[in-house]
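Hi C.,

You asked whether I'd gotten around to modeling the 359-residue construct. I have! Everything is below, sequence then structure, no commentary in between.
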Amino acid sequence: VQVGDLVVQVLPKADRTGDADKWRQALLTMLRTVHRLPLTSTNETHLHQRHSSILDFFYDLYVQDVHGLVRRGLVKKYRRRSGNLTALKGRIDWPSHLRDNLLHKERFHVQHQVYDRDHLLHALLKQALGIVRRTTVDPLTAGRVDDVSWAFEEVTDMALDRRALERIRLDRKTKPYARAVDLARMIVLGHSPDVHAGDMPLVGLLFDMNDLFERFVLRVLHRAADAHPELDVDVTGQARVPFWARKVIKPDIVLRVKREEAFKTVIVDTKWKVPRDGQPADADLKQMFAYNVQLGSTRSVLLYPSSEGLKPTASNYHAGHWTSHVEHGCGLAYANLFDEGGKLRPEAGGQLLTELLIQ
């Protein structure tokens, strides 16, 4: 979060003993995996040496992406325009034409299509560039914004809120825009131009760590399943399961593994928190009970980031009137994914997948 020249980094520490550098790097590792960020050992070192914050790094990465799009050539789209012209093009807007041109026979109020670069996609990129230019504390990034701003001079400024940004859809021609659009969305939605009575803009990139951790674990498990075909496991994320009327439940991750002639189902729900005294919350246990019943699973797992002193545990649910014919339970597991430097351990995915399957 940046207010004026003040930058505050809120790191997603999963324990009380880990150092800040480890969790800063762990955040970058998760973002790289989930958001396809081109972080290498070289530019990660560059980040630590040159940029004062992760926010500045995202700024610089965004501006680099926009430079690449401009060099490639910004995509044109058709859009509808209306105007009172001296040439007849498109179709006449008769109500407006009769209202405006009763005394101007040489004019036509028409609606027609134009094919240019003035559309919502570029309005988003332009607005994000403006935010970067006004708020960055890195003069090199500011200079790069100035170098590329000319390409958006003819783009109309638009009021962009979350609903407007949800309308953006990429097609075959605009597929190269994907990462720049993701970054621009984060920048625009994280920007607050007026902080109460102050005149300093606030901008921040705050990530929902539960969502980020879930997507990161899903990617890690997908890769592990591909690397270990002998496990014969299918990994699915956010499967929609009918629950009540039109309501559905969506387990974070479902593992289905073939055992002889049947399938074993393991349901995994990720939690970016440390359970107090190693005990799960009542609401989480009830949630996993519902998952077991609806998906016919005998085992579900609450998966937390690893934390010193906490060990895996499991227990069965007590038999109820409608569930006395089958035993099913829930376990607690801890994902040891990062090394001391905050990077993904090479063997972490395979180990985690194996541990979940034997829960």
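If it helps when you're writing up: The chain has three domains: 2-75+120-203, 77-116, 209-357.

Thanks,
B.
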